[in-house]
Q: What sequence folds into this?
């Protein structure tokens, strides 16, 4: 066999089956939330200047490229943030506050209080760390930081405000939003 063929076979045999990759981060094509199968809707790379900060992956019951429809539906949603660069807890909290203000400027007091609780759960994130947000109708949004469940924040209104931080009218970047919506 020639070397090119051997190299190609080696790549094919070691590549995960049913997975997508972006900036060195691999995510499964499917995940399960409360017994329901969700599909990887899309992946986005969050960059700050030239620094690759994290890769996000959005999972939904079925593919959807319309953010308004995603937020309107009361269905499970799952978003993973895989960090490529260290970010302090205070910067994460500032980003949540900015995302809330930019995408849900008249947020009810109850939603603002839940964002304060979310901020209190933030810790310094390093390369390889992960934040996971899983919304389940009737239960709320479960927050997992570095593999540890921090708690669940009740209400679809909170989930909509949180997911709007990524796919709302003012996301971290238009490219990031397009990636999550599978339009990139």
A:
């Amino acid at each position: 066999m020639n070397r090119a063929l051997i190299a190609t076979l080696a790549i094919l045999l070691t590549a995960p089956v049913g997975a997508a990759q972006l900036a060195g981060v691999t995510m499964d094509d499917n995940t399960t939330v409360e017994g329901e199968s969700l599909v990887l809707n899309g992946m986005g790379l969050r960059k700050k200047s030239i620094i690759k900060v994290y890769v996000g992956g959005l999972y939904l019951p079925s593919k959807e490229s319309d953010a308004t429809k995603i937020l309107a539906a009361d269905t499970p949603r799952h978003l993973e943030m895989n960090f490529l660069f260290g970010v302090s807890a205070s910067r994460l909290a500032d980003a949540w506050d900015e995302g809330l203000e930019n995408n849900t400027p008249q947020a009810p007091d109850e939603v603002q209080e839940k964002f304060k609780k979310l901020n209190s759960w933030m810790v310094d994130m390093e390369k390889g760390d992960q934040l996971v947000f899983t919304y389940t109708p009737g239960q709320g949004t479960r927050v997992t930081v570095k593999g540890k469940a921090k708690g669940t924040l009740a209400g679809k209104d909170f989930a909509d405000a949180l997911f709007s931080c990524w796919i709302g009218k003012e996301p971290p970047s238009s490219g990031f939003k397009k990636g999550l919506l599978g339009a990139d």
